[in-house]
Each structure stands twice: as structure tokens, then as C-alpha cells.
């Protein structure tokens, strides 16, 4: 009854488990992480692992509404398990998958349901009055909500100047609102994945390890491994040292050289802002384009895929591999070189 009064049914919470109302729905259960390994939780854990695996493999999470309680409960448990992997890429992949699935489902919903979901994110939004609006739009969204959720969308259609704007409001159709809600949902899920408990039960750690193994097999071990947080230039591979020196001297870099250097620096912990600063001395520097390229490589735009440098064999083919040393002969990837060398240079 409480769920219905708030405007969301149990079916809604199963489809859109990130809603604030979901927390209210499961609160009486007082679910603790220790409870996950207790008898009777098998079905929930099984469904939880299914949704995480699908996120990793397919970048979506299809809804299973045969048992609504299991479906609803599997979401907060999934957040705990994904957080337990302590892996940034898995967290981003999961959040993106939840968001994309929800956005796809929202397109098929009545506009009134979409409105309620948008209000859950505190949007200033209302339905258009058709008799007073000739444009094929169904929603009026305040420009601040619009700008917040289009900042990473670079199709020209999302530019405010290309939108129907009146009195500080933007007129949008269902598909456009669903796309902007995808951004809101992704950020909310990512925020909830920031939780870190002091200790996870052993059974939960084992499940998290299975998830990481699947991610390594699917995405690639090099991509999934976390790099040390402190950038150690002394651990750079010779090829990266050469590219870094050229960039510092504002020398022209080939396309693959620039991509290799940028993706390497981002993967070892340098921020997009710091990488952008490095390129500012280049004669062909264009701030908007450079920022877009860096953020795209970092996985902050587009498909949210974080790119890694090419393997050593590819760099050799393109003449980027230079000054090979003894360690180079034992590894196949610049990031693997860095991780091994960093451990030797800074064993603590």
C-alpha cells in the first residue's frame, strides 16, 4: 500500500530499483551483509550474480519479474557485491548497464510514469499542454536539469542552441527525457557503489572474486587490473618515456603516439585535467577537441569504455616501440611493464 501511494508499484521497483522508494520498501527487512550467507538467501544471491554477470557480458540487465521480491532485493545486494570487487571498471560497467536498461524500459512507459521517475531525481519537469504547443514534445524540463545531463553528450542535437527553449525551459520528447535520465541513473548508481565496508564475509569475497575473474576474461586482464594510485615516472616503459619527453618539448606526436601516451597516463592514475595541461603547449592545441578526446579515452564520454594503450607488438609495427630494455623482452604490454617496474622502484 505504501508503494502504491507513492505512485510506484512493486513492478516499478523491480524495473527501476534505483528509486528512492526502493530503500523504503526494503527498510523493514533490516538486511545486513552478514545475512547474505544465511539460509534462504540462495535465490537472491543467484539472481544477484546473474544481473552482475549480464552487465559485464552484455552491458545490460534484463528484468526478471517472475518473483518481484527477489528481483527488488537483488539490486541492493548487487551493489554490495560490485563494491566488494573494489574495481573501478566493474563499478562503471555495472552502473552503465543499470542505466541503459532503465532508459530502454522508460521509452515504453506512459509519459506520466516517466515524469514520476524524473521527479525522483528532483527535476523541475512538467508535461506539456498539447493545445498550447505545436511542437511534437511531451515534456518541459528546466534548462539546469537539461545542461547537467547533456554535458557529456556531444551530438549536436544536444546543444542548447539546437533545442526548443522558452522561458528557461527546454521542450523534449519521451526518448530524449529517457536518454537524459540514463545519465542521472548512472551517476546515482555509481555514487551508491562508493560504499566500502570494513570487512566482507568470506562467501561474499568468493563471489566477488568470481565476478572479477569473469570481468578479466571478458574485458581483459590488463584493462581490469587496478594501477597504483601514485604516478611513478621512473617506472615508465622506454617507449612511454620517449613519447612523454616529446610531449614535454611540444614535439609533434603521431596519432597512435598521442593515443598511446594519453591512454597510458590515464590508466596509471593521471587525471584528464593533468593530461590536458600537457598538451596545451602544442601548436595544434584545441581545448574543446583535446578535452573531448582525453575524456573519451578515459571512459567519461560515449560508451564509458576506458581505453588502454596498444600491446607492444602493435607499437612495434607502428614504430612507437623504442629503446627496449631487458624487461621489455619479458612483457607484452606497457601497463604490465609499469606495474612490474613500479613494484620494483617503490616496493612499499
Which helices and strands occur, and which strands form pairs?
Blueprint: H1 2-5, H2 10-15, H3 20-26, H4 42-58, H5 68-85, H6 88-107, H7 111-120, E1 125-127, E2 139-142, H8 143-150, E3 164-166, E4 169-172, H9 174-192, H10 202-219, H11 221-224, H12 238-248, H13 255-267, H14 272-279, H15 287-297, H16 312-317, H17 334-345
Antiparallel strand pairs: 1-2, 2-4, 3-4
**Number of E-state strands:** 4
Oligomerization: single chain
Question: Which residues form runs of ≥5 with pLDDT under 50?
Answer: 1-5
The span between the termini is 56 Å
Structure description:
Helix 4 (42-58) packs parallel to helix 10 and helix 7 packs parallel to helix 9 (174-192). The chain starts with a helix and ends with a helix. The chain has helices at residues 2-5, 10-15, 20-26, 42-58, 68-85, 88-107, 111-120, 143-150, 174-192, 202-219, 221-224, 238-248, 255-267, 272-279, 287-297, 312-317, 334-345, and strands spanning 125-127, 139-142, 164-166, 169-172. The protein has a 4-stranded antiparallel sheet with strand order 1-2-4-3. Residues 1-5 have low confidence and may be disordered. The protein has 3 domains: 2-104 and 192-220, no CATH class; 106-187, no CATH class; 227-345, DNA Cyclobutane Dipyrimidine Photolyase, subunit A, domain 3, CATH 1.10.579. The protein is mainly α and 348 residues long. Helix content is 55%, strand content 4%.
Amino acid at each position: 500500500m505504501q508503494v502504491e501511494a507513492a505512485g510506484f508499484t512493486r513492478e516499478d521497483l523491480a524495473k527501476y530499483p534505483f528509486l528512492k522508494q526502493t530503500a523504503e520498501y526494503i527498510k523493514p527487512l533490516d538486511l545486513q551483509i552478514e545475512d547474505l550467507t544465511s539460509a534462504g538467501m540462495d535465490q537472491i544471491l543467484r539472481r544477484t550474480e546473474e544481473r552482475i554477470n549480464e552487465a559485464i557480458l552484455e552491458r545490460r540487465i534484463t528484468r526478471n519479474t517472475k518473483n518481484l521480491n527477489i528481483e527488488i532485493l537483488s539490486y541492493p545486494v548487487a551493489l554490495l557485491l560490485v563494491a566488494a570487487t573494489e574495481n573501478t571498471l566493474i563499478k562503471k560497467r555495472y552502473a552503465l548497464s543499470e542505466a541503459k536498461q532503465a532508459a530502454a524500459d522508460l521509452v515504453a512507459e506512459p509519459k506520466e510514469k516517466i515524469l514520476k521517475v524524473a521527479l525522483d531525481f528532483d527535476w523541475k519537469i512538467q508535461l506539456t499542454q498539447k493545445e498550447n504547443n505545436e511542437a511534437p514534445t511531451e515534456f518541459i524540463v528546466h534548462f539546469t536539469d537539461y545542461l547537467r545531463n547533456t554535458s557529456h553528450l556531444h551530438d549536436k542535437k544536444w546543444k542548447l542552441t539546437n533545442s526548443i527553449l522558452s522561458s528557461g525551459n527546454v521542450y523534449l520528447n519521451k526518448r530524449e527525457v529517457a536518454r537524459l535520465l540514463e545519465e542521472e541513473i548512472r551517476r546515482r548508481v555509481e555514487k551508491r557503489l562508493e560504499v566500502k565496508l570494513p570487512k566482507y564475509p568470506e562467501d561474499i569475497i568468493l563471489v566477488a572474486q568470481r565476478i572479477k575473474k569473469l570481468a578479466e576474461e571478458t574485458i581483459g586482464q590488463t584493462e581490469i587490473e587496478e594501477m597504483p594510485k601514485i604516478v611513478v615516472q621512473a617506472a615508465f616503459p622506454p617507449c612511454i618515456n620517449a613519447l612523454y619527453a616529446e610531449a614535454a618539448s611540444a614535439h609533434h606526436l603521431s596519432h597512435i603516439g598521442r593515443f598511446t601516451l594519453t591512454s597510458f597516463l590515464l590508466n596509471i592514475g593521471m587525471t584528464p585535467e593533468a593530461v590536458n595541461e600537457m598538451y596545451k603547449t602544442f601548436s595544434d592545441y584545441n581545448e574543446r577537441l583535446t578535452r573531448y578526446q582525453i575524456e573519451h579515452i578515459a571512459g567519461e564520454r560515449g560508451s564509458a569504455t576506458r581505453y588502454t594503450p596498444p600491446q607492444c607488438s602493435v607499437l612495434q609495427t607502428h614504430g612507437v616501440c623504442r629503446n627496449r630494455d631487458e624487461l621489455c623482452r619479458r612483457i607484452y604490454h606497457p601497463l604490465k611493464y609499469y606495474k612490474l617496474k613500479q613494484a620494483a622502484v617503490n616496493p612499499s
